[in-house]
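Protein entry
_____________
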Amino acid sequence: MKISSYNINGVKARLPRLLEWLQETRPKVACLQEVKSQDEGFPAEEFEKIGYQAIWHGQKGFNGVAILADGVKPVEMQRGLPGAPEDEQARYLEADVAGVRVVCIYLPNGNPQPGPKFDYKLAWMERLRSRMQHLWSLELSCAVVGDFNVIPEDKDVWSPKAMASDALMQPASRDAYARLLADGWTDALDTLNPRGGVWTYWDYQAGAWQRDHGFRIDHMLLSPELADRLVGAGVDKDHRGREKASDHAPVWFEVRD
């Protein structure tokens, strides 16, 4: 069973690339972030044409997450991250698919830092940890995947110095991510690529893609029940280099059925 995550950076703007990727790689589950579409404008019928059913949590102009499944309808379990009823940003969606609890997240960027956006990021990460602790306690086969907007270690960025002042690399961001792992979750991509040097994002500016100046911010965290079945994980890097592509590449992991 293959589960993928893809920050698509606008589901309508990248629809041809997205459909192309789905048909070429055929994940059982595809989690999307930054769909940038209101609920009523989400192009669900386009995915149905190629065999995928979807649930989504949209928002006009930015944010937005979705979960697609091949041949089955994801069973929604939670919409929006618990812990702050006043938070209306569309960043969290949770569903059951084929015996796996799949959580799709788009974690706040946090820039500029310091400031209210960074404070929101850290508070969101605390709420995420609380939810993940609850899921962990249920002893489910569970995957929390998406754009975490955290560069966990120096090995996960082309130049630590270049990103030193960014919210993605602040000690508080890294510490919050490390606490998730310390709670018992497995970083699938890092586990199978322990030396680092694996990027999932390349900025559109300054020739970052052409120079391979990237970093790893798209993560897949697995519960012990799922990590025990892990057989592979990777990045569909070539899709970043295609015409009118997202600035992220899709990431994926595979588990034994």
